[in-house]
Design goal:
The chain is built from two helices and 13 strands, in the order βββαββββββββββα. The chain folds into two domains: 43 residues, no CATH class; 107 residues, no CATH class. A hairpin with a 5-residue loop joins strand 1 and strand 2. The protein is mostly beta strands. Strands 4, 5, 6, 7, 8, 9, 10, 11, 12 and 13 form a ten-stranded parallel β-sheet that branches. Strands 2-1-3 form a three-stranded antiparallel β-sheet, with no helix packed on it. The protein is 10% helix and 52% strand.
């Protein structure tokens, strides 16, 4: 490794003189603060840690995660083994991996993972259900029920997508058909 040393004396042509010194030549045992009236050299080193390849699998995934984090400024995740009861409001994205019994108000999207359970009422823009949803669900745009997803109750949707194995039971209607 090398350290940069900058000579604080300015040359007659107003450029700073820069030299490179091996770090092995710099004593790290003692630190001496320079006298403000004296000019001295300061050793500077910069160490950068490599980023694991698994973190940067591709530019697209990094870009997607950045744009997702900008869009998910108000994100709530209920982890596995956690139970939450009450009213949830003003959430851009709710991810449920535990158990939630609640009323959603002014929320944008909901994702119920395979281990997740939601019981209650929600009127949202989009939903992806891989676990269990029981209650009143109104999805203005896309409702996606994965192969492991189970939805029951009163369901209204803009567009409905169900993977093979996914289930939906109850009073199920398209929002377009309820407007007529």
């Amino acid at each position: 490794m090398f350290a940069r040393e900058k000579d604080a004396k300015q040359k007659s042509d107003d450029r700073i003189h820069e030299t490179v010194t091996p770090l092995s030549d710099i004593s790290a045992a003692t630190a001496v603060l320079p006298n403000p009236t004296e000019r001295s050299t300061i050793a500077v080193s910069r160490v950068t840690a490599p980023i694991p390849a698994s973190t940067l699998s591709s530019r697209d995934s990094l870009r997607d995660s950045k744009s997702e984090s900008k869009n998910d400024t108000k994100r709530l995740t209920v982890g596995r083994g956690i139970s939450l009861n009450g009213k949830i409001s003003f959430c851009d994205r709710l991810v449920i991996d535990g158990k939630v019994e609640a009323e959603l108000e002014d929320c944008h999207t909901v994702e119920v993972t395979e281990n997740g359970t939601f019981k209650g009422a929600a009127e949202i823009t989009g939903a992806e259900i891989s676990g269990h949803y029981d209650g009143s669900l109104t999805v203005r745009e896309n409702l996606l029920i994965r192969s492991t997803g189970r939805v029951s109750g009163t369901v209204r949707y803009g567009k409905l997508h169900i993977e093979d194995g996914g289930e939906i039971n109850g009073d199920v209607k398209s929002i377009a058909s309820t407007k007529n």
